[in-house]
Amino acid sequence: MSTLFEKIIAGELPATVVHRDARVTAFLDIRPAAPVHILIVPNKVIPTADDLTDEDESLVGHMMLVARDLARQHGIAKSGYRLIVNCNPDSGQEVYHLHLHLLGGRPLGPLLQRTSA
Ligand code: AMP
Fold first, then answer.
1. What's the pTM?
2. Which residues are catalytic?
3. Could you tell me the domains of the chain?
4. pLDDT at 117
5. Would you say the CB of residue 65 lies under 6 angstroms from ligand 1?
């Protein structure tokens, strides 16, 4: 069964795609947590960051550079942004197809609430 994001990459599920190339697809998050909230997703399925292999090194670098370019295009490079990758249940990962969140367009506040470690 294909993941939700595979369907978006294949064009079988609607999404606002803001970047597409041979290795990654980027589209707007359906429930944005900030004025700019973009997901950068590898075209091949990698369920979590824990499933990355050494062969994925350049893919991960490419995801970061696509995020940099999208931040510039959306006018948040200088004001600032946050890149997040959730991995497995404690992170709250909902979709098991690796994705990089690009968030910005307002002050984002502290990274995490400081509760007992
Ligand atoms: P995560 O919790 O890191 O797995 O993030 C999954 C993200 O996917 C959430 O921010 C969701 O709002 C987003 N999402 C879920 N379904 C869709 C969809 N059909 N199109 C765009 N974003 C989605």
1. 0.96
2. 99
3. 4-104 (3.30.428.10)
4. 62
5. no
